[in-house]
Amino acid sequence: MWDRHPHGYFEGRRAKLFFKTMKLIHRVGVAPDILTTLAYWVLRPRRSEWIVMTNTRREDTPDRDTLAAWHDSTRDIPADLLGDCYTRIGALTGMDSTCKVLDVNCGTSRLSTPLMDSGHEVTGIDTSSAMLEQANSQLQTGWRGSFVHGDATRIQFPEHSFDVAIISRLLLNIGNAGQVTQELSRILRPGGFVIVVHAKNAFDSTPRRHFRDMCDERGYLPQRHKGVRYVISSVFSTLNMTHLQLDVSDLKWTKTMTYRESIEHLRLQLHAEFWLVPPVEYDQMLGQVQEKLARQPGGLETEDILNPTLEVDLYMKPEPAHEPGVRG
Ligand SMILES: C[S@@+](CC[C@H](N)C(=O)[O-])C[C@H]1O[C@@H](n2cnc3c(N)ncnc32)[C@H](O)[C@@H]1O
After folding, report:
1. Quick one: CA dihedral 68, 173, 234, 205, positive or negative?
2. Which of 126, 151, 198, 269 has most ligand 1 atoms within 8 Å of CB, for mutation?
3. Which of 178, 181, 250, 261 is the most buried (most CB within 10 A)?
4. What is the domain partition of the chain in residue ranges?
């Protein structure tokens, strides 16, 4: 059972009871607003039941246009690994250069560059003009790609327009996973599929771990936080999309990050799981992390060596006969 509440999603017995009660309240029709509020307060999820999935951002969070300039430097999945990954997806699904691909929330087009390089036709959409400008400026002669303004919650293309959709780091920005997945399912042809790309451990730095521990101590991180991967898989399953997990854990790389860089990422609030933390406490805790790490030998110039790996999930849209569709 999934639904949206002002700070995220919740699930479980209390959520089921809440939605049943809501239905009853609306069927009876007496004072629905007051009774709904009452029901929410009695049955609301306890903090440990929340699954953080929110687009609640602090007012001082830089907008995506401001962040576009350095986005590429943080999105450092090596292009050759992505290329290998797409080759494996092709072997499994029959995805080839005749496929039309939609790169949803394309950003600077990092994820679809290897696809265009191998001849795929890619359309990218994003809400940020600065991101799109960078994506278009990177197009090379012979590539079939165009990057245009578009919103993942209301995709401008008609149904069945694409064979493949790619998403990465989208749903934490949006919050309404259900609306996005419905849109993805709509624009895909039957038998088409969504590729969800994730770089596991790409930001698992020492400052972030310290910050996470502090948030945890103060009760800001849900104990049952299952992460965005779990949320995506739950939402797609409600659309009868077949989930294929592709093991690409051997596609890994190494990157270094100074404590100073990680603290800057935290200062810019790039990590959505912390967006629920009230601003004053956020700044306080970040100050403490910074002070503590600055006192260590090497200070803020100390480097973390991170070992990210690729994680890929595929969600296939059923063929009309409700058979899981795999091309080829
Ligand atoms: C963290 S970046 C990821 C970019 C790209 N998918 C990648 O992995 O390199 C998130 C992107 O989502 C875009 N975005 C946020 N909300 C969106 C929406 N409703 N529709 C389309 N794009 C959106 C932002 O502008 C930003 O470019």
Report:
1. positive
2. 126
3. 181
4. 7-45, 64-316
What are 243's strand-pairing partners? 315
Integer Cα distance of 219 and 228 in angstroms: 19
Tell whether ligand 1 has an atom less than 6 A from the beta carbon of residue 64. Answer: yes
Cα–Cα distance measured from residue 267 to residue 263, given in angstroms and rounded to the nearest whole number: 6
Q: What's the pLDDT score for residue 227?
A: 61
CATH T-level assignment (fold) for domain 64-316: Rossmann fold (3.40.50)
Q: Is the pLDDT of residue 252 over 90?
A: yes
Residue 218's identity, in one-letter code, is R
Which tokens in the block code for residue 65? 């246009």
Rounded-to-integer distance, Cα 323 and Cα 326, Å: 9
Check pLDDT > 80 for residue 270: no
**Nearby residues of 179 by Cβ (< 8 Å), 6 or more positions away:** 153
Model confidence pLDDT, tens digit, residues 58-109: 455 555 565 555 566 567 789 999 999 999 999 999 999 999 999 999 988 9
Q: Give the helix ranges, DSSP H, for 163-298.
A: 171-174, 177-187, 206-217, 227-237, 259-267, 279-294
